[in-house]
Amino acid sequence: MELKSEEVKQVHDGFVSNLKPILVDFYKQRIKEQQTLVKLIERRYIKMRDSIELAGDLTEKVEIQRTFKEGIFELLNKQKEMLIENGLNGLNLEFENAVKKNLEGTKRLIHIKELFHGYPIRINENPIKSVRKIFVNLNRYLIITLKRIANVFLMIFRKKQVDPQVYRRRRVPLKNLAKYFILVKFLEASS
After folding, report:
1. pTM of the predicted protein model
2. What pLDDT does 136 receive?
3. 58, 60, 110, 138: which is deepest, by most CB within 10 A?
4. Over the stretch 79-89, which tens digit does the pLDDT of each residue have?
5. In this predicted structure, what is the pLDDT of residue 1?
6. Of 165, 169, 127, the residue nearest 144 (C-alpha)
7. Could you give the CA distance from residue 93 to residue 71 in angstroms, rounded to a whole number?
8. Domain for residue 58, yes or no?
9. Which residue from 74, 82, 108, 96 is spatially nearest to 182, judged by alpha carbons?
10. Domain assignment present for 155
11. 38: alpha, beta or left? (left if phi > 0; alpha if psi -120 to 50)
């Protein structure tokens, strides 16, 4: 993942390193539960196979198979109820705690410098916003022309020229964004 800001990279790497063990432990626990279910079904199957071999009459064999299938359906229903009851609750709580713990050291606001290309102006927008966009764009063009004029004089005096691009500094609420996108979006996706 290509991240521009160092602060954002640190938050991303911190979450990846903190959440990976939580997810691994959670899924290992789920896999163990599934393995016990498979072993239980396997034992019942072996028991059913042995009792079919010992059974003499066909109706007795059919009855053994029917009880085996009923037992398997009971096990699967119990497993389903347990999954519905537990769900991802354990993971959600651990995930929330890890997110809160990791966000404690995160900066609340970061400042990002990015290239400013001007605002597009549309006819069907709010007139107040359009007027504001016009003034911001005029300010941008004025700054660019002043820098170009300054570059002509700097070129004459053989000085280092100024970059004519206009940059915009934004304040990004990193802590709130990280909390929203990592915590809220994950919980919405898991429920």
Report:
1. 0.50
2. 92
3. 110
4. 888 877 776 66
5. 47
6. 165
7. 34
8. yes
9. 96
10. yes
11. alpha
**Distant-in-sequence, close-in-space partners of 150: CB < 8 Å, separation ≥ 6:** 162
Q: Which residues on neighbouring strands pair with residue 80, listed in sequence order?
A: none
**Six token digits for residue 145:** 């022309």
121 neighbors 134 (Cβ within 8 angstroms) = yes
Question: What contacts 48, CB < 8 A, 6 or more positions away?
Answer: 64, 65, 67, 68
- Give the C-alpha separation, 22 to 20, whole Å: 5
Instruction: List the domain range (segments joined by +) for residue 149.
Output: 117-165
Supply the Cα-derived Rg of the chain in whole angstroms: 32
- Is there a single domain that holds both residue 11 and residue 64? yes
The pair of three-digit structure tokens given for residue 154, joined into one six-digit string? 């700097």
Give the integer Cα–Cα distance in Å for 8 and 149: 37
Tokens of 135: 């003034």
Helix, strand and coil in the chain, % to nearest 5: 75, 5, 20
* Pair of tokens at residue 42: 């396997």
Q: Half-sphere exposure (CA, 13 Å, Cβ side) for 71?
A: 15
Evaluate whether residue 1 is within a structural domain.
Answer: no
CA distances for 170 relative to 112, 119, 142, 174, angstroms: 5, 15, 20, 11
